């Protein structure tokens, strides 16, 4: 019989274990767990989703909207987006910003 050119599937860990198709877990699930769980914060300007970014996962440079300074690669920081955006949560996610942790914490004091 001719040999198949299709790649072989990985074995699953049992009838109910494993993942669909035996392909294994998505690569980003472990990184999400390491980066922290997104949490919801309320402020006078709306509902926000805040997620911590570890120094290990911070690979690009961003500009912090709080202090207008760069968030350098390798610096732990927060990724923040508006959950109750006027045009929906998908638009809010697309407009997410990277903040220094102290800049995000200090921004709520402007409202008091």
Secondary-structure map with pairings?
Blueprint lengths: L26 H9 L3 E5 L2 E8 L8 E2 L6 E2 L5 E6 L6 H6 L2 E3 L1 H7 L5
Antiparallel strand pairs: 1-2, 2-5, 3-4, 5-6
Q: Please, could you describe this protein's structure?
A:
This protein is an alpha+beta fold and 112 residues long. The chain has a domain at 36-111. The chain contains 3 helices and 6 strands, in the order αβββββαβα. It has helices at 27-35, 89-94, 101-107; strands at residues 39-43, 46-53, 62-63, 70-71, 77-82, 97-99. The chain has a 4-stranded antiparallel β-sheet with strand order 1-2-5-6. It has a two-stranded antiparallel sheet with strand order 3-4. It starts with 26 loop residues before the first helix and ends in a 5-residue tail after the last helix.
What is the number of helices? Answer: 3
Number of strands: 6
Percent helix among the residues? 10-25%
Shape: elongated
Runs in which pLDDT lies below 50 for 5 or more consecutive residues are: 16-22
- Termini separation comes to 77 Å
SSE string, helices as H and strands as E: HEEEEEHEH
The secondary-structure class comes to alpha+beta
Multimeric status of the protein: single chain
Summarize the biggest pleated sheet: 4 strands, antiparallel
Mean pLDDT value: 76
Portion of residues in beta strands equals: 15-25%
Please give the radius of gyration in angstroms. Answer: 20 Å
Across the major sheet, the strand order is: 1-2-5-6
């Amino acid at each position: 019989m001719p040999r198949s050119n299709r790649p072989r599937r990985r074995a699953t860990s049992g009838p109910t274990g494993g993942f669909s198709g035996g392909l294994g877990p998505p690569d980003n699930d472990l990184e999400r767990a390491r980066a922290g769980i997104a949490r919801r914060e309320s402020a006078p300007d709306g509902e926000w989703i805040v997620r911590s970014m570890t120094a290990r996962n911070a690979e690009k440079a961003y500009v912090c909207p709080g202090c207008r300074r760069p968030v350098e690669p390798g610096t732990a920081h927060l990724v923040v987006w508006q959950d109750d955006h006027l045009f929906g949560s998908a638009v809010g996610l697309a407009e997410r910003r990277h903040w220094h942790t102290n800049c995000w914490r200090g921004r709520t004091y402007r409202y008091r």
